Amino acid sequence: MVSPELIRRYPYFSGISIGQLNMLANIAEEVEADAGQYFHHEGDDIDKVYIIVEGEVSLVTSLPQQEKEVVINTIGAEEVFGWTSLLPPFTAGAGARANTKCKLIEFNASELREKFEEDYEFGYLMMMKIAQIIRARLDSIVIETLAYQAAK
């Protein structure tokens, strides 16, 4: 369990009630990761959602034909990853690796999904926030792709 006050300070949780904050605090843990540690690999079944408190995480994918890992995006404090654990088929769309020592808030995705089912308004609000994350990540990929193409 973490303090509801810790969760409250993240913009991702704006607009939720005190009761919902307390519920989230009950299913969250503060965790640490060392630089180079993987949280998950692309295609893994996952059941954790993370908010970065401190540090930097790379979202990565593999190019099997080149046996090479490519960084899709680098994210830092206050950003969320592992959100695909909330969406069927509950697998990682990309790997996630700590670039630096990290402090994070870790949520059990199975428990979150149960809470979404119990409180549809809360579930809707949280899924809208996940949609905003998806949009931001897609925008970032588009910009990176355009920059790559322009440099050719």
Element layout with pairings:
Elements: H1 4-8, H2 18-26, E1 28-33, E2 38-40, E3 48-54, E4 57-63, E5 68-75, E6 80-81, E7 95-98, E8 102-108, H3 109-118, H4 120-151
Antiparallel strand pairs: 1-8, 2-7, 3-6, 3-8, 4-5, 4-7
Helix pairs in contact: 3-4
Characterization of this structure:
By secondary structure, the chain is α+β, with helices and mostly antiparallel strands. The chain has one domain: Jelly Rolls (Sandwich), CATH 2.60.120.10. It has four helices and eight strands. It has helices at residues 4-8, 18-26, 109-118, 120-151, and strands spanning 28-33, 38-40, 48-54, 57-63, 68-75, 80-81, 95-98, 102-108. It has a four-stranded antiparallel beta sheet with strand order 1-8-3-6. Strands 2-7-4-5 form a four-stranded antiparallel beta sheet, covered by helices on one side. Strand 4 and strand 5 form a beta hairpin. Helix 3 (109-118) packs across helix 4 (120-151). The longest helix has 32 residues, at 120-151. The termini are far apart.
